[in-house]
Amino acid sequence: MRNPYAVFCRHDAQVMNFWRERWVRLGSLGRDLTLALAIKIAALLLLWWVFFSHPALQSMSGINPGVEAHLISPATPEPSPHANH
Length: 85
What we know:
The chain is built from 2 helices and no strands. It is mainly alpha-helical. The chain is elongated and about 80 Å long.
């Protein structure tokens, strides 16, 4: 029986060879910069996940109704006393 995924495996090997050759051609400075950038991105994502991905307390998950009432004013604003002048 033939492997129906053999074409994909061959394609994956070609893609890996392409990226491996490109990595070698990049030079030591390019490799160092790429690696440092990848590490920094991973560290920033980790910090975001640890501190900002979910609320610290369950009570912090929604807006306080008092704050919501203060921020969202009624649809009919009061007229200004200086409007007639």
